[in-house]
Description:
By secondary structure, the chain is mainly α. The chain has one domain (about 5-75). The protein has helices at about 5-20, 25-45, 50-55. Helix 1 packs antiparallel against helix 2. The chain is elongated. The two termini are about 25 Å apart.
Amino acid sequence: MPPRFREDFRAGYEAALDAAHDFDQFKCIREVLHLWRLRSVAYSRPHHEEAIRAAKEGRDEEFVGADLIPGWAEPSSSAGSTGAACWS
């Protein structure tokens, strides 16, 4: 994963760990790790930034997949980066 995303990953992971103290929220750890695994693959690919711009601008023909991952094109500080389904 590119270094600039590591702080966001760490924040999401720590939030999931905190949520996991409630047994009903234990799945959050798995969800956050899965989401970040997918993101790390995408972030490390060439032309990732352009693909995100295309998705945000609605140029769906240029970027297929943004709608498959919750919170994908949202800013990293949003709930989508930490597994929003866990604590919504």
